[in-house]
Write a structure and sequence with these properties.
Structural class: alpha/beta
Largest sheet: 6 strands, mixed
Strand content: 25-35%
CATH architecture of one domain: 3-Layer(aba) Sandwich
Distance between the termini: 24 Å
Order of helices and strands: EEEHEEHEHHHHEHEHEEH
CATH class of one domain: Alpha Beta
CATH topology of one domain: Rossmann fold
Number of helices: 9
């Protein structure tokens, strides 16, 4: 039996300015589990993540982390509470080295460079290619390697919840499988993972829980072991389960 959820999103409403894009989304993430949020382009997936991380205003519903409401917490306060967000597009500092990128990820904790340097071995164990190339600039990495670097940078903040927005975007299928394998390995560390994806099969294969949203509303939410691809397909077209 899984632990109580660390993140609970209840009947979320959010958007941009006065424009509401998400009307009713509920989901949860427990420690040591992967919760996947699926949906077509424009369904409201990224907008949901932005509300969870404080980049968008919560217009209705609740966002609760570790039993406390986050609705009024600033983004940096959510980071301090243990939420790391890897936005889509492999956003790394390309002119800096791999190691410098990773160290920057840890500075949010207020630790000194010596302490952070000692922690790099954990990231290098998860992503050996980053260790091999640690003195090269991030610009020299392939798209898949930059995605691994972005995840590693987020992990240096020692999050309790890791949020990933379409880490497979623009990657070759073989690289997607490698990135997802590393994400799956993170479960063993006990952190919770919220994964937004359009790659249905590979993401569901590593998921513990699956949610689908369409036009800003949740149309499916259930344990991954209990969901079929036919149900996911139906949910993509707005069939409420």
């Amino acid at each position: 039996m899984s632990e109580a959820p660390m993140l609970e999103v209840k009947n979320l409403q959010t958007g941009y300015g006065d424009l509401k894009v998400v009307w009713d989304v509920s989901l949860s993430v427990s420690p040591g589990e992967i919760s996947v949020l699926l949906g077509r382009n424009g369904a409201g997936k990224t907008t949901t993540l932005r509300a969870i991380t404080g980049l968008n205003k919560v217009m209705g519903g609740e966002v609760i982390f570790l039993g406390e409401p986050l609705d009024k917490a600033a983004t940096h306060e959510r980071v301090a509470k243990g939420i790391s967000y890897v936005q889509e597009g492999k956003r790394v500092f390309k002119e800096l080295t791999i190691e410098q990128n990773l160290l920057l990820g840890g500075f949010t904790r207020g630790e000194n460079k010596r302490t952070l340097t000692g922690e790099l071995k954990e990231i290098y164990a998860l992503f050996p290619i980053l260790d091999e190339k640690r003195h090269l600039t991030a610009a020299s990495l392939s798209g898949g390697q930059q995605q691994m670097l972005a995840i590693g940078q987020a992990l240096m903040a020692k999050p309790r919840l890791l949020i990933l927005d379409e880490p497979s975007q623009g990657l070759a299928p073989v690289i997607v499988k490698e990135v997802f394998a590393r994400i799956h390995e993170l479960k063993a560390t006990g952190i919770g993972i919220l994964l937004v994806e359009q790659d249905v099969r590979d993401s569901v294969a590593i998921a513990d829980h699956v949610s689908v949203i369409e036009m800003g509303r949740a149309t499916l939410s259930r344990p991954a072991k209990d969901v079929t691809y036919e149900q996911i397909q139906a949910a993509y077209f707005g069939k409420v389960e």
